[in-house]
Design goal:
Blueprint lengths: L4 H31 L5 E4 L12 H12 L4 E4 L12 E4 L2 E4 L1 H11 L10 H29 L4 H5 L4 H18 L6 H19 L12 H15 L5 H9 L1 H14 L15
Parallel strand pairs: 1-2
Antiparallel strand pairs: 1-3, 3-4
Bound molecules: glutathione.
Length: about 280
Amino acid sequence: MFLDIQHLIPVLVAIVCTSLLLILKSRRNHNRIQSCSHDVVLLHHCGKGPHAPSLSPFILKLETFFKMAEIPYQIVRDYKLGPKGKVPWVEYNGLIMADSQLCMEYLTEKLRLNIDDHLSTAERAISRSLQRMVDEHTYWLMVHWRWAFDKEKLSLRQANWGSPALIIGTYVQKKNTYTQGVGRHCEAELLRILRKDFKALSDFLGTKYYFFGDRPSSVDCSIFGQLSQFLWHLPGSEPNAMLRGDFSNLCEYCHRMKDNLWKDWADNVLFPVEPS
Ligand SMILES: N[C@@H](CCC(=O)N[C@@H](CS)C(=O)NCC(=O)O)C(=O)O
């Protein structure tokens, strides 16, 4: 078939542009892989939160763990979901891993970390129960409040979620919480349930510095990750007022975790001034 020069030009331009884009993309990936040296964890991230380093408690949990265990890591803000369709996920020496807890357990074993060595057998059992409670239950209460009851969605809007993303997010997350179960409770019931989770944490913490004494342990990463969302990302809400009013030891604990482990907190939040 014969093509004159007028028809060929757009085709050639398209071919050149596509090739350039592919070259740029492969260079970017190459640079990324090259810039991450051996034994450095790449943490895939979905952006800074307004008043805490992430709107995802699980990203905050994992990053806190890296800091606590002094594991070198690098953040990739690529807003991509991992192989299990969720964040966080990491790359470590060529291995891709998803799920904050599985990542922590893998690295603890691989690097022979001793962050839970000071816990007795009974304390380890309690630690596991607390981790499961906050990550698999308290988390969902926060998600349901954030998406179903918090009409203003200030933190999400501050993190640049536009109206279409908020509409889709609300639909998806209300469906998720309904399937999980907490989405079937009314506001008053949710608050009563949440109060009991806060009370259990508050009573167990008491006047201790961290959950198991003077040294932080892995469960502090989970508890801090989850509580931080109520404390910093639900300003003006009833869960936030409850935490600040009735469980002040948990608030003080969150500030302690932040001050002791997150020297670079202010560089990792969108608005370094705390909401009142
Ligand atoms: N068990 C997972 C939970 C991770 C999780 O639920 N991440 C949320 C963000 S906070 C997510 O990616 N949600 C996206 C979705 O469910 O589609 C972990 O510990 O990493």
